[in-house]
């Protein structure tokens, strides 16, 4: 299968991310997703109730901005559009015109997503991967999965969704490797200030170590 520009396939699926120096956060006994921001009232949705919404399967590759791709993953969960239309839209302030969403994880990680990208048909809130409940390495209890965008959009251990009528302030905005605001893999939108192709040589040096990490990876349950 064809990969997006500048990507290389790895075997397995490494645990990866900006919070890798910490173990994955423990899964709460009764996990919930808080929904807040430009709403008439905030709401808390239990992960158990989320799982009762119409279910969606998604077969997709997963592309990290660092150049590795995990191929042929099978996610199960709820389409983000279903969650948005049924749980969020009814609570919007009357004249609100939402433009951005923030997805926050139990480890404090946050990703900001343009509404149009979040409502794409292949965006799911996943609670299962490859026929099993999502494990902590890959974002238990639930995570965002947006396979058309680099992995940094796909917040793991999802615990809060915020809706915004304008772009929320971004602490990384001056970072030379700040993530691209759209992060679309087929357009190679890796970074905000650097063209995607320009960073390929740097990332290429990381692929060997990441491949080795991935070969040891948790996908086969080996550790
Ligand atoms: N909560 C949380 N979500 C996160 C991250 C993180 O560090 N914490 N890292 C992101 C990045 S950069 C990538 S590539 C993917 C990695 O997902 P994986 O560990 O399932 O491979 O998670 C994304 N979501
Ligand atoms: Mo990533």
TrEMBL record:
Pfam families: Oxidored_molyb. It comes from the Bacteria. Residues 31-167 form the Oxidoreductase molybdopterin-binding domain. InterPro entries: OxRdtase_Mopterin-bd_dom, OxRdtase_Mopterin-bd_sf. Gene3D superfamilies: Oxidoreductase, molybdopterin-binding domain (3.90.420.10). Transmembrane segments: none annotated. This is Molybdopterin-dependent oxidoreductase. It comes from Streptomyces monticola.
């Amino acid at each position: 299968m064809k990969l997006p520009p500048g990507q290389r396939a790895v075997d397995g699926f490494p645990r990866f991310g900006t919070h890798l120096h910490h173990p994955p956060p423990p899964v709460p006994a009764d996990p919930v997703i808080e929904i807040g921001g430009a709403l008439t009232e905030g709401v808390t949705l239990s992960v158990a109730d989320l799982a009762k919404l119409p279910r969606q399967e998604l077969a997709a590759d997963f592309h990290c901005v660092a150049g590795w791709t995990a191929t042929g993953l099978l996610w199960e969960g709820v389409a983000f559009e279903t969650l948005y239309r049924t749980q969020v839209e009814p609570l919007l302030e009357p004249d609100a015109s939402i433009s951005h969403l923030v997805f926050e994880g139990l480890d404090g990680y946050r990703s900001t997503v343009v509404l149009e990208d979040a409502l794409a048909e292949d965006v799911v809130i996943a609670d299962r991967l490859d026929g099993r409940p999502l494990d902590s390495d890959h974002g238990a209890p639930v995570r965002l999965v947006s396979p058309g965008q680099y992995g940094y959009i796909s917040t793991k251990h999802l615990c809060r969704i915020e809706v915004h009528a304008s772009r929320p302030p971004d602490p990384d905005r001056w970072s030379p490797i700040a993530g691209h605001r759209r992060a679309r893999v087929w357009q190679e939108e890796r970074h905000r200030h650097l063209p995607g192709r320009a960073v390929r040589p740097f990332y290429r040096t990381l692929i060997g170590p990441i491949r080795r990490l991935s070969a040891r990876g948790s996908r086969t349950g080996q550790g």
